[in-house]
Amino acid sequence: MSPSPVVRMLAASEWSQPGSAVEALLGLRPKLLQQAIANGVRTALLSSQGWLVQWHEGPAEAITTQRDAMQAEFGLASPRLLHGSHGPGLLAEPVQLASLQMSDPNGDMIRRLQYLQRQHEQGWDAEPVDVWKSLCAPCQLPGAWRPGLVGRREVVALVSDDNDAVELLRSVAIEFGARVAYQRYAGSDLQRRDVGAAYMDIEAGASMATRVQALSPRALGTGIDLLGLGQIDRFVLLVNPQSAQHSSLLADVARMVGRLATRPWIHLMCPCPASRAWAAQELRAACGVAVLPVDAPCTGYPAMQALHDVLVA
C-alpha cells in the first residue's frame, strides 16, 4: 500500500547570517524536531552562498506556517518558489540539514535559482529531489551551471574511516585542475553533529563526466540523497591495515551497496596484502560485488597516482 500523498514545497530565500550557517541550523534542529512531531511536517534545509533552501513535506497549512516561521526566525528575504506539488513524501527523516561551500563564479547561484523558478512557473514536471540536487551538489565543470550534467555521468565514491578521503580528493583535484566543493550534513539524531563531505567533477571525454565524492561512513546512510548522490557506480575504499578488522567501514559500505539499484564495482586500496585480501573476501561475501584490489597506501603521492589511474582507466 503506497503512502498517502503530501504537499511538497521547495523555496529559496536570501540569508544574511553573521556567524556560522551550519551552527545556526544545528541550533534550530531541536525546535524543528518538536514541530515535526506536532504538525507532521518533514523538513530539509540547505545553506549555500548566502541563500537558504527549504524543502518541506506534509499538510499544506502546516507547511505554509513552517515556511513563514523560518522567514521570520532568520530574517530571510527575496523568497522564490522552486517547486510545489502533491505526491509521495521523499524525506527519510523529520529534519535534515546540509550546507554547500564552493568557489562558484559570481552569480551562478542566482542563475540556478532563476532557471529553476522559471521552469517551475512553466510547469516543469520535476521531482523535489531533482530540484534539491541542482542546488546542493551542482556540476562544477565550465558552463554547467544549469541543473544536471550534459552527457553521461559516472559517480565514484571515495570512502575512508577518517579524513583520508577528503585529503586525497583535494590532492588529486590539483592534478586534474578541478575545483573542490565542500558539504556538511546532519540528520535528526541530536546526539550526532554534522559530518563532512567533498566532491569534484572532471571531464572524461566529449560526452562523459565523472563526479568523485569523498564521504565518511556516517554519510553513507540517509545523508546520501541530501548530499546529491542518487547513484554510485564505483566505490574506492581506503582501508587502513592497522584498523581494518576493528572498523565498521566495510559493514557500512555493504549496507549502502545493498540499498543501491545497481551493483557498483569496488576498488579496495590498501598497502598490506593480508589486510587487502581479508577485506576483499569480506566485501565479496557481504555484497556479492566485484572487488578490485589496489596495492597502494591511503595517503601520499602513491595514493594520488593510484586514484588517478582508477579514474582514467
Map the helices and strands.
Layout: E1 6-14, H1 21-39, E2 42-48, E3 51-58, H2 60-74, E4 77-87, E5 95-101, H3 108-121, H4 128-136, E6 152-160, H5 164-176, E7 181-186, E8 195-203, E9 208-215, H6 223-226, E10 234-238, H7 249-259, E11 265-269, H8 273-287, E12 291-294, H9 300-312
Parallel strand pairs: 2-5, 6-9, 6-10, 10-11, 11-12
Antiparallel strand pairs: 1-3, 1-4, 2-3, 5-7, 7-8, 8-9
Helix pairs in contact: 5-9, 7-8
Provide structural commentary.
- It contains 9 helices and 12 strands.
- It is of the alpha/beta class and 313 residues long.
- Strands 4-1-3-2-5-7-8-9-6-10-11-12 form a 12-stranded mixed beta sheet, sandwiched between helices.
- A hairpin with a 4-residue loop joins strand 8 and strand 9.
- It is globular, with a radius of gyration of 20 Å.
- It starts with 5 loop residues before the first strand and ends with a helix.
